[in-house]
Amino acid sequence: MINEVAIILLYGMFGWQVAAIYVGTGLAIAILAGWIIGLLKLEKWVEPWVYQTHLGNSGLAEEKLDLIKRINLDIMP
């Protein structure tokens, strides 16, 4: 809800008060929206395969690539 570029532009054009109001209201809206979405209990709409997906260590050994192998991977499809 808060864009860092907008903060800098608002500060430069209107001063720190307007930028602070922008940050405060943006945080309040984002927190309130997240709280409301959490209250809706939307977990029942998530597909089962999402819960079956495991991120991180897949049990496969990683291949250590040296510089030449990395360059070849970028050049050759």
Distance between the termini: 39 Å
What is the overall pLDDT average?
88
Q: How many strands in all?
A: 0
Low-confidence stretches: none
H-E string: HHHH
Which labels suit this protein?
single chain, 77 residues, 64% helix, flat, mainly alpha
What's the gist of this structure?
With 77 residues, the protein is mainly alpha-helical. It has helices at 4-14, 16-39, 48-52, 67-75. The mean pLDDT is 88.
Write the layout of secondary structure elements.
Layout: H1 4-14, H2 16-39, H3 48-52, H4 67-75
Helix pairs in contact: 1-2
Report on this structure:
It contains 4 helices and no strands. It has helices at 4-14, 16-39, 48-52, 67-75. α1 runs antiparallel to α2 (16-39). The protein is mainly α and 77 residues long.
